Amino acid sequence: MGSIIYELKDLPTVANKLWQQIQTKPVAAFYGQMGAGKTTLIKAVCAVAGVQNTVVSPTFALVNEYHTNTGTPLFHFDFYRINRIEEAYDFGYEEYFYSGHNCLIEWPEEIEELLPKDTLRIHIRVLSERKREISIGRD
Question: Which terminus of the chain, N or C, has less C-beta within 10 A?
């Protein structure tokens, strides 16, 4: 899938396409520079998934747990402020990544070696202030 988002109103369509992909590979890593829209895109994906909680970036907590309208947990990670990879070990990343529940990860570059082999990789590239390119890979 390769999509261009021109305006925020396009997010639900892109998020729906992403959610279809994410359901086949529970761990999804979102790559993009600061301000690319990773959190905004994850909020839109969570809305499509039926998350009932308020979705905010877990920058200081590392992980937020949300629940869909069916009660299924969905985990949202932000590794931007991680200082050393051991911090991921300390909070038990394996229990999340290998739980079978969806895990949406911001700043996966910081823990790349810990990601499952079949992680869905979602790349956001800033083309202009109002235009983003979204691409998906599994490599």
Answer: C
How far apart, in whole angstroms, are the C-alpha atoms of residue 104 and residue 48?
A: 13
- Angle at alpha carbon of residue 80, lines to 75 and 81, rounded to 5°: 105
Confidence of residue 73 (pLDDT cuts 50, 70, 90): very high
Task: With H, G, I as helix, E, B as strand and everything else as coil, classify residue 135.
Answer: strand
Check if the beta carbon of residue 107 is closer than 8 Å to that of residue 32.
no
What percent of the chain shows pLDDT beyond 70?
A: 96
Domain boundaries, the chain: 2-137
- Cβ–Cβ under 8 Å, residues 61 and 91: no
Q: Is 49 helix (H, G, I), strand (E, B) or coil?
A: helix
| CA 124 distance to own-chain centroid | 11
Q: Give the confidence band of 2 by pLDDT, cuts at 50, 70, 90.
A: low
At 85, is the secondary structure helix, strand, or coil? coil
**For the whole prediction, is pTM greater than 0.90?**
yes
- Please tell us whether the domain made up of 2-137 is placed in CATH 3.40.50.300: yes
